Amino acid sequence: MDKQEGGSVRRLSKIIMATGGTISMLAMCCLDSDGLYMYYAGAVCILGGFIAGAGYGLRVLSERRREMQIEMFYFHQADKLDGDIELIDCSDSMKEAR
After folding, report:
1. Contact of 27 with 44, CB cutoff 8 Å
2. How far, in Å, CA of 52 to CA of 58, rounded?
3. DSSP letter at 84?
4. Over the Cα atoms of the chain, what is R_g?
5. Nearest residue to 56 via CA among 3, 5, 15, 92
6. Which residues in 57-74 are b (16+ Cβ under 10 Å) and which e?
7. CB under 8 Å, gap of 24 or more: what pairs does 87-92 form?
8. Contact indicator for 59, 13 with CB cutoff of 8 Å
9. Which residue of 3, 40, 44, 49 shows the fewest CB atoms closer than 10 Å?
10. Three-state DSSP state, 86
């Protein structure tokens, strides 16, 4: 289930980035218009860049979350193995040897 969730977030981030890039490219085609429409096209271009950046941020967060899950899995496995270790107090034997 975790692999499916991570894959869907990655897929969603790619879709968001592609949508933002497409919006920006289409707005750039309209930048040569005159008057007020040029400013609208510029604003839409910037908005598309923000949407693409949000998709990239979602992808980075997804990767960090995946790495953290892997790290915690191995850390938890190590804790299970460390439960069998018994510490031996050597301070008494060192005093007797002197």
Report:
1. yes
2. 10
3. T
4. 28
5. 15
6. ebbeebeeebeeeeeeee
7. none
8. yes
9. 3
10. coil
Residue pair 52/14 in contact by the 8 Å Cβ criterion = no
Rounded distance between C-alpha atoms, residue 75 and residue 93, angstroms: 34
**Phi then psi dihedrals of residue 82, to 5 deg:** -75, -15
Residue 26 identity (one-letter amino acid): L
Contact present, 50 and 21 (Cβ < 8 Å): no
pLDDT in tens, 17-59: 999 999 999 999 988 888 888 899 999 999 999 999 999 999 9
Q: Do residues 52 and 25 touch, judged by C-beta distance below 8 A?
A: no
Q: How many CA atoms lie within 13 A of 87 on its CB side?
A: 3
Q: Where are the beta strands (DSSP E) in the chain?
A: none
Does residue 35 come out as left (phi exceeding 0), alpha (psi in the -120 to 50 range) or beta? left
- Asked whether the beta carbons of 49 and 16 are under 8 A apart, the reply is no
